[in-house]
Amino acid sequence: MIDQFNMRDHFVSLCNLVNQTRLDGVLVQSGELIANMTGGRIALIYLLDATGRNLVLSGGYAQGFSTWAPGSRIHPLQGGGRSPVCPLTQVAFTGKNLCLDNGTAGYDMSPVISALDGVNCPSHVAVLPLARANADFLGVAVVLSDGAIAPWLDRSVARQILRAVAAAIETRQVVAGQENEKAMLAKSLARAEGDRMSLRQRETGRLSKRLIGRSRPMQALREKVAHLADKTGPVMILGEDGVGKEKVARAMHEHSVHSASAFVYANCASLPIDVFAPELFGHKRGAIKGVASARQGLLRKAGNGVVYLDGIDRLCGPGQEMLLRLLETRQYRPLGSDRDLPLAARIIVSARSDLSARAQEGTFLPGLYYRLREMAITVPSLDECREDIGDIVQAVLNGIEREEKRHLKLHPAAFAFLSQRPFPGDRRELEGLTRLAASNAKDGTMLTAEHFQAVDAQSEPENVSTPGILPLPEALAMFEQDLITRALAQTDGNRTTAAEMLGVPKRTLADKCKKYGL
Ligand SMILES: Nc1ncnc2c1ncn2[C@@H]1O[C@H](COP(=O)(O)OP(=O)(O)OP(=O)(O)O)[C@@H](O)[C@H]1O
């Protein structure tokens, strides 16, 4: 009769249960379902906590209350042999229904009474175990009824409903756990991303202090430097004289994980192989004639830092071949040694921008060029980044302020002057010009266009009036006169010696002196 009478209600409640998307909703729905099924007035759900040692009052249902959320309370599962017995503990350990239709004598009902918070406690109590799909203990449902509960529990539907309730709770717990994990993961990802961003900002900030300029080409350059900094393999930095190739190399090293190791500089320009090889690889004692002691090479000195080879385009042919071999084998042998050593340092080279053409025409080893261009950076010239002039000048002035305690500011007219002025020596020329202009300015003043113009005027070669095109006899006479004057000056007017110097007979010189009135 019970089953027939309530079947439709059970079915609706079960659908509601399955449709709950939150654990608290599942618990209320479960309470209602269990109460209806057992004819109870109140149903409480206690779930085992993560430690497996406590039952936590997690949800409940009370007839007549649209929503009822008993405060969550923790009840430690008690060890055996206690008196009075905790009914929750007993069910947790036995896994069997406990139906107290005939009174609760001998049982400690405080975990149940305390949950009621003043709600009148019905006379009949049953504690029903809830099990996970793998039969592990999940928790208990406590039913409080004004009438006998046992007859209701005998129905097969009771077992099915308790299984459905346990499954719904377990599913929600798993989903809630996953969501919790997802939220924690998202939080830690956001934290890591934040850390990464601020680290990146700090690093890019450091790079902008070294490689000054807000122009697009400079921004792109800094990005490329940051990108290549932690890669391995050689880097080639291309650019004309004074654009800042070495500065880029140093910035890349400082940005890398090996920044604590050494940055070793070597100028390759025009070095013959017998100087370049021992310099780079080092040599053993007695390996070089006339050199008594052994010497550590630059590769060894750099450790796992950087060896910066400046002006690789001017390295001699055998040097180029040696370098290619080093990059290919990643091994080298100090002169006089019989042991190869591994290449630990990163090789960064600099060259003028026309290296590709040089490789094509065969004046630079093509194989080395192709190896080096795998990671190449071209430094934009100041002409391509004219908007950076103000920032570079300001950086120089800041340096002067730090070193010399002199405070100088750039006058807008000076900036306008510099923006127009060509800089064939690139950033090096701008830096040097600013230093010289600043040396003529007083502390606390503005650096004006005149300060820069004064430096330019001093460095211009003296005005030599170049004669226009003269008829050849006239020009030859001028040249002859100048030559004789200088020969006489050098010989203190001694015509005999002067004639010898000029390779003419004494008589010819005398005639010419007469002709030119010397
Ligand atoms: N982005 C920059 N901001 C400010 N100063 C710079 C910048 N780039 C280079 N400089 C300055 O220009 C000068 C030349 O730089 P660096 O020696 O790095 O140039 P380079 O290209 O290696 O020159 P070279 O070809 O003669 O070896 C240095 O004094 C450096 O401080």
UniProtKB/TrEMBL annotation:
Domain Sigma-54 factor interaction intervals: 211-439
* Source domain of life: Bacteria
* Record keywords, A-Z: ATP-binding, Nucleotide-binding, Transcription, Transcription regulation, Two-component regulatory system
Entry's Pfam families?
AAA_lid_14 (PF25601), HTH_8 (PF02954), Sigma54_activat (PF00158)
Q: What is an annotated GO biological process for this record, any one?
A: phosphorelay signal transduction system
- Do the record's keywords include Ion transport? no
The protein depicted here goes by the name Sigma-54 factor interaction domain-containing protein
- Which species does this protein come from? Thalassospira profundimaris
Q: What is the lineage of its organism?
A: Bacteria, Pseudomonadati, Pseudomonadota, Alphaproteobacteria, Rhodospirillales
